[in-house]
Design a protein that fits this description.
Two copies of one chain form a homodimer. Chain A is an alpha/beta fold. Helix content of chain A is 34%, strand content 25%. Chain A has twelve helices and 20 strands. The A-B interface holds A 16, 19-20, 50, 53-54, 56-62, 64-66, 68-69, 71-73, 75-76, 78-80, 82-84, 86-87, 93-94, 96, 99, 143, 145 and B 16, 19-20, 50, 53-54, 56-62, 64-66, 68-69, 71-73, 75-76, 78-80, 82-84, 86-87, 93-94, 96, 99, 120, 143, 145.
Chain lengths: 405, 405
């Protein structure tokens, strides 16, 4: 008998019929003899509806109240799922983040989990019941309701799996796993049966939307095997596990792309120590997530610094940068929202140094200009014009022999 | 400076515009210099929508989960109201029933309040903030979320007013106060500026829908003056206060009616001590709320017992009664859903014994047959055919000179 945490996303519990289908699957798992802890997101578009309502009501939205509002969503889906389980003869019981003992810091709308107590979950499991836990939410050290921000329900599931010593954490979603590229762009994309945590981290960080970066980090740090699969087909999906020697090391595992970022360029930055530090400290203080950073060669004692940020953070980034520019003796600040990033990810790259050359050649042959480059030990990313990015993904997918035969 | 608890019902916070109107009124109260604690219900039809969803999902609805589901409603409205208040520059903060320290027993869907701690509310008030509290909900001694059943938000408001020593509890609703009769039936009905707790209890118990019986009882027991008023006109409404010698004692204050009950008759009940006790104990055990009870004259050692119950409890009442009838040697059990009750309420009745005679004469003159009669010191109720009840209300309103001139 093993213990499995199953997390169901918003589309998986999108309506009454979907909730009953999830209950049926949980019931099967239970009857197979496994213990189950279920984590649910809010139903379908509930969160969007609540945010729209908030915008209708007020221009001012205190973060604490936004959290109070949004956490209503999981409350509904979890209570409904317990009812559907009761209908199947499964004894289940719902728990809010607070009741499950998910203790967070006080950063409303983007709280970090400090501790998972889980006492009531252990008691319920011991009594042979199925705990159904609200994803995305916790309770702060100040006893206020908090939410965990983007990908919060995945993080809840992984944190519970770690705290309860679960054998696996199954992430049910509307796609059937992690693919070698976005199948909407590359029809030949293959579902990957297994990827390593490191690869998954780079896939998530470079535009693969299946799992939130943060939940993968948490799973890696706590050695929780993840299984990403579809709640529509119920087929086996992609396992995200620790890398081991026996794992087949593809040179390139996946081609990802990201169209959600914008490029900021600060022109004529004095080439002196400490200038870049001031700039990126100021951005960090405004909670702007800077991704790729490129500093061009110094000319006549000044340099241009370019970096990418999520488009939602662009206004904040420009505000910070334009305020700081005169102070640090820099010139104008340019924004470019017409960029996209294409990345290659593969643990095998570590031992195959020719990958970047092949990537650049492939793009050059198609006349796709590379504007920024960044690399890690298992990833190479290029920023290109947004209108060329899908073509770039397809070309690279073929060039690295990822197409299904 | 005084402290006032303001409770806003579902229609008062029915949409974004209504929520902004409520925020505006709370802000005015605050700027006038008073401290305010706000209690809100779920928005408009939210509760009905959630119940429909539950029915779509499952035939089995564990009460604990129903409470978990329904309490999402107030969570939304209170967070939205705090946002709207923030927009008006008012520093407010929302509290769930649990956070407000409303401790209940473990009877899910109809919990009783055991204690109101209110520590976080006192702290918020001390800091000059406006606490906005979820009505209808609490937390049980087992740390589970509970709801207080029908009229629960009114009860929350009164309980908070009592616990915090508020000077008044304002109940905002979609009518402008308590009327001498239902204005939809009697266009000449007058709004009552003042009624006593005892009168209000009888008005609520006999069909006046403005305030839940339970909240009036709570207010009377804890000496909390109530002010029932409209959140659409914001005019002064009806004060419900302790009876005092100076109060003008109208003989009849109001004519109420109730079409929500059904009549059950148990035929041929042996006229022996203890039989009625067994019957009504069995009904109480099934949580059937029995209202009027009439036992006819005994004939040949048997008697007929008739009683009224809420129509929603009729199936349960018939089940209990029909199961018990053979045991107690009774004959058949008849159900009649085509009845209604008309009542006169007035503290002045105590000193005016002729009221019932006038009532019976008025109904007799119009050919309206009286099927059951019950009285208290300040109320007389008659059960009549349902199709005659509106006429009865109008006739009695005129007969007792309640029509506006």
């Amino acid at each position: 008998m093993s213990l499995v945490v199953q997390k169901y996303g918003g589309t998986s519990v999108g309506d009454a019929e979907r909730i009953r289908a999830v209950a049926d699957h949980v019931a099967r798992t239970r009857r197979r003899g496994d213990d189950v802890v279920v984590v649910v997101s809010a139903m379908g578009k509930t969160t969007d509806d609540l945010l729209r309502l908030a915008n209708d009501v007020s221009a001012v939205q205190p973060p604490r109240e936004l959290d109070m509002l949004l956490t209503a969503g999981e409350r509904m889906s979890m209570a409904l799922l317990v009812m559907a389980l009761a209908d199947q003869g499964i004894d289940a019981v719902s728990f809010t983040g607070s009741q499950a003992g998910i203790i967070t810091d006080t950063s409303h709308t983007r709280a970090r989990i400090l501790e998972v107590k889980g006492d009531r979950l252990r008691t319920a499991l011991h009594e042979g019941r199925v705990p159904v836990v609200a994803g995305f939410q916790g309770v702060s050290t100040e006893h206020d309701v908090t939410t965990l921000g983007r990908g919060g329900s995945d993080t809840t599931a992984v944190a519970l799996a770690a705290a309860l010593g679960a054998d696996a954490c199954e992430i049910y979603t509307d796609v059937s796993g992690v693919f070698s590229a976005d199948p909407r762009i590359v029809p030949e994309a293959r579902r990957l049966p297994r990827v390593s945590f490191d690869e998954m981290l780079d896939i998530a960080a470079s535009g693969g939307r299946v799992l939130a970066l943060r939940s993968v980090e948490f799973a890696r740090n706590h050695h929780v095997p993840l299984h990403v699969r579809s709640s529509f087909t119920w087929e086996p999906g992609t396992w995200v596990v620790e890398e081991d020697a026996a794992m087949e090391q593809a040179i390139v595992t996946a081609v990802t792309h990201d169209t959600s970022e914008a490029k900021v360029t600060v022109v004529g930055v004095p080439d002196r120590p400490g200038i870049a530090a001031r700039l990126f400290r100021a951005l960090a203080d405004r909670m702007v997530n800077v991704d790729t950073i490129v500093q061009n060669m110094s000319q006549h004692g000044t340099t241009d610094i370019s970096f990418t940020v999520p488009r939602v953070d662009l206004d904040a980034a420009l505000d910070v940068t334009r305020t700081l520019a005169p102070d640090i003796g820099a010139g104008e600040v340019l924004a470019d929202t017409d960029v996209a990033k294409v990345s290659l990810i593969g643990a095998g790259m570590r031992s195959h140094p020719g990958v970047s050359a092949t990537m650049f050649e492939t793009l050059a042959k198609a006349g796709i200009n590379i504007e920024m480059i960044s690399t890690s030990s298992i990833r190479i990313s290029c920023v290109v014009r947004a209108e060329r990015v899908e073509e770039a993904v397809r070309l690279l997918h073929t060039a690295f022999e990822l197409d299904t035969v």
